[in-house]
Design goal:
Length: about 375
């Protein structure tokens, strides 16, 4: 179908609109929508603002007061309209009643409740319904947490690292505070707000006594979950009185151990270890979903980052590099427990992006294998 407007531009607008929901919609995807009249003039934009609130299509439709304008109009939406009644009624069922000429959706919704059914409902009503055939990467990135949850049946895993420009995240005496600039730390809090859980290893918990909460103006009321990896339950008597305990209600704290341990009102997740004494991360990240943790920002230390790399169980890297060189004599490289013996074994990254944040270089990229054959890697 010949559309009377630039579909790539409209999809880009819908993607930008969708981002406004970041930090508020989990476990739902970020979704954005643009509606254009029969001549291709923009009528409205909408997005999914919050879990349980209107979906993007309904948000955009509600902004059009004069419903006559919908005669022969076009909808551009980043995800296939939902077929089912969930927290909100089905978008596809609402759309099929409208006098629209076309609906273009960015990605098929992998949720089995929709998965093609939304498009079918709309097509059956006589509205031309088509999948967008342009660049899919920004759409995949937009909904990446949701897509990994649906496709891999596990939480989305981001590794967040603050290091010197030569990749050292701490010194061997454990000191690691304030490597990067204030601006990077603000962005890091934004990252915290867009993940359900923040994860650290036992050593980081003991050495840094971190708060692991969200301190960012855009998210004043944000509650996040905290996860500590502690195979032998050594933090049992340390967690009370820690900054984590002071800054989070006990029901938001999760300690992961091999054998079950009683952590006074806090959650204990048990997970088996592999031969090297490391948690089996595909098992753990799958179990996170049971606890309502759909995305996790891993904040270290080096042993923890390395184990996610080794097991191939991670999706995105956020690397903040300060204009400093620590050297490897006393430095701890963030990937130091991970190693390859052959160039073909390198972890490859895709969709890389970099920008300056204050005086730091911020680099973000995806694990090339994310969402592919990770089940077999442990
Ligand atoms: C859309 N537009 O804006 C979003 C969609 O529990 P509910 O009712 O909010 O439904 C959640 C499911 O709906 C989610 O798993 C995904 O399949 C879809 N999300 N669909 O048409 C939207 N957020
Ligand atoms: Zn919907």
């Amino acid at each position: 179908m010949n559309l009377p407007f630039d579909i790539d531009r409209a999809m880009e607008l819908a993607i930008n609109e969708a981002r406004r929901g970041a930090g508020f919609v989990s476990p739902n995807p970020l979704v954005g929508c643009v509606i254009l009249d029969s001549k291709g003039e923009e009528l409205s934009r909408g997005f999914h603002p919050k879990l349980g609130k209107d979906h993007a299509e309904v948000d955009a439709l509600k902004k059009i007061k004069d419903k006559k304008l919908l005669e022969g109009a076009h909808m551009v939406v980043t995800l296939e309209p939902c077929a089912h009644d969930g927290r909100t009624p089905s978008c596809a069922n609402a759309i099929k009643e409208l006098p629209l000429a076309s609906v273009t959706y960015g990605l098929l919704d992998p949720n089995p409740l929709t998965a093609g059914k939304g498009a079918q409902i709309i097509s059956a009503s006589g509205i031309h319904c088509q999948e967008y055939l342009g660049d899919k990467i920004p759409l995949e990135e937009l909904a990446e947490q949701f897509l990994i949850n649906q496709r891999m049946d596990r939480a989305f895993i981001s590794l967040k690292v603050a290091s010197s420009i030569d990749g050292q995240m701490a010194l061997s005496d454990g000191s690691s505070k304030w490597i990067t600039s204030e601006q990077s730390r603000a962005l890091a809090h934004h990252l915290r707000a867009t993940h359900d859980g923040i994860l650290v290893g036992r050593k980081t918990f003991e050495v840094d006594n971190p708060s692991l909460n969200v301190r960012h103006d855009e998210f004043p009321d944000k509650r996040n979950k905290v996860i500590v990896l502690d195979p032998k339950g050594k933090t049992k008597n340390l967690i009370e009185g820690s900054n984590i305990h002071k800054n989070h209600p006990p029901e938001d704290i999760f300690i992961v151990t091999e054998e079950s341990v009683e952590f006074k009102g806090m959650n204990n997740i048990t997970c088996s270890l592999d031969e090297s004494g490391t948690f089996k991360l595909s098992e753990l990240t799958n179990r996170f979903l049971e606890f309502g943790i759909h995305s996790v920002l891993v904040e270290g230390g080096a042993l923890v980052h390395s184990s996610f790399l080794l097991q191939g169980c991670w999706d995105r890297l956020h690397l903040f590099m300060a204009p400093k060189i620590f050297g490897s004599t006393n430095g701890i490289s963030w990937s130091q427990e991970f190693g390859i013996s052959n160039m073909t074994e390198a972890c490859e990254l895709s969709w890389p992006r970099s920008t300056m944040v204050g005086s730091d270089l911020y680099y973000s990229a995806r694990n090339l294998m994310a969402g592919k054959n990770q089940e077999s890697s442990d």
